[in-house]
Write a structure and sequence with these properties.
Helices cover 73% and strands 0% of the residues. It is mainly α and 375 residues long. Helix 1 (7-25) runs parallel beside helix 13 (288-306) and helix 4 (95-107) packs across helix 5.
Length: 375
């Protein structure tokens, strides 16, 4: 039987967000901490499949229900962060940087900002110019939702084709990643665009499909294997070595496979060592989305104010503030809307989304029409 909530998944989220945050704040400390994003994508694919995909395929729920739930989960915190970052940007950013910021701001409501960063950004630089650069992966994830919806509609009359098509798309995506990323044809394309990331999200979906088939079989407890898989997720990004594309590809593949194994073990086994369920770590996992949203704008704006990279003390202060804002966002915005204590009606949810989108677009247009000189 599939359990409704797996606390260990929050542990994985905590590890992933910690890797990303440490990489951005202290690049020399965790030089491949960006692998946290790859880990997030595998987790997202698994969770989406676990909560929504099979009910849709079995016609127990609808795509409208899926998108409504996703908007409740992701959009409120995103729009809050984007608007407050825009207000801070008006005050703190120079016109040239504000104009760059405005371009990505314009695409936020459409979840197309990854294309803006693909054309003009560098995947691995410190946060110097654009406080919204970290939102690229949210656009990729939303585009993956559209891909899944299209696949569901395309195979509505022939459900048996869904899985071969998903496997084929994931294999092509991995090939795209190897050619454009590992072989250096276009590393930005492999980093910022869905074709280079679909295999990671697809891996999460396919692992749950496998787990679903195995869950009824009698399985011996494997708590030690779970700890080893989680340990591998932590260790792989910390292992020093050649920073070249082949080494990064090997680490990426290892981190993604370790994440997939950990997720499968969490689902198949009922008992795990307590270290995988520590309340403090799980809490970081619960606020991981908001923490991911807040940490980058704070670091970027602090760099803009200082005119240089932050020293460790300044970076630490920025992360403390990010943690506080993430906690407040989780308790006061994310959970009330997600649990329908606020905005219970789907129609009101849509109107709220359109209103927030209009505010973001108006702000972006004001910045762009004045070339960033608007105050």
């Amino acid at each position: 039987m599939i359990r409704r909530y797996l606390p260990e998944i929050d542990t994985l989220r905590a590890i992933a967000v910690t890797l990303v945050v440490l990489f951005h704040a202290y690049p020399g400390l965790v030089p491949t901490g960006f692998l946290g994003v790859d880990i997030f994508f595998v987790i997202s694919g698994y969770v989406i499949s676990r909560a929504y995909l099979f009910p849709i395929l079995e016609r127990r729920t609808t795509l409208a229900d899926f998108y409504s739930a996703r908007f409740r989960r992701l959009a409120p915190a995103l729009f809050l962060t984007v608007m407050l970052t825009a207000l801070a940007g008006f005050v703190l950013l120079k016109p040239i940087d504000l104009a760059i910021f405005g371009q990505s701001l314009l695409l936020q409501p459409f979840y197309l900002q990854n294309f803006n960063f693909w054309l003009g950004g560098d995947a691995l630089t410190p946060p110097l110019a654009n406080p919204l650069l970290n939102t690229w992966n949210l656009a990729v994830e939303e585009q993956f939702y559209l891909f899944l919806a299209g696949l569901c509609l395309l195979t509505a009359a022939r459900r048996h084709l869904f899985w071969p098509l998903l496997v084929g798309a994931s294999a092509l995506s991995f090939l795209f990643y190897l050619v454009f990323g590992t072989m250096g044809v276009s590393p930005r394309s492999a980093f910022f665009l869905l074709p280079g990331r679909l295999w990671q999200l697809g891996l999460g979906v396919l692992v749950f499909c496998l787990v679903r088939k195995l869950r009824e079989a009698a399985q011996p407890p494997r708590p030690l294997l779970s700890v080893l898989a989680v340990s591998a997720i932590i260790i792989v990004p910390l292992v020093p070595g050649d920073p070249g594309p082949l080494a990064v590809t090997v680490k990426t593949l290892a981190a993604c496979l370790a994440t997939a194994c950990a997720l499968a073990l969490f689902e198949l086994d009922r008992d795990h060592y307590a270290v995988l369920r520590l309340r403090a770590i799980r809490y970081v996992g619960k606020i991981s989305y908001a923490l991911y949203l807040w940490h980058w704008p704070l670091l970027a704006l602090a760099v803009a104010v200082q005119g240089r990279l932050l020293n460790p003390v300044e970076a630490t202060l920025a992360l403390i503030v990010a943690g506080l804002l993430a906690s407040l966002t989780y308790h006061l915005v994310e959970m009330p809307i997600r649990m329908r204590r606020m905005i219970r009606n789907r129609r009101i949810l849509l109107r709220s989304f359109l209103l927030a989108s209009g505010a973001v677009l108006a702000t972006a247009m004001a910045i762009l029409f004045t070339s960033g000189a608007f105050r």
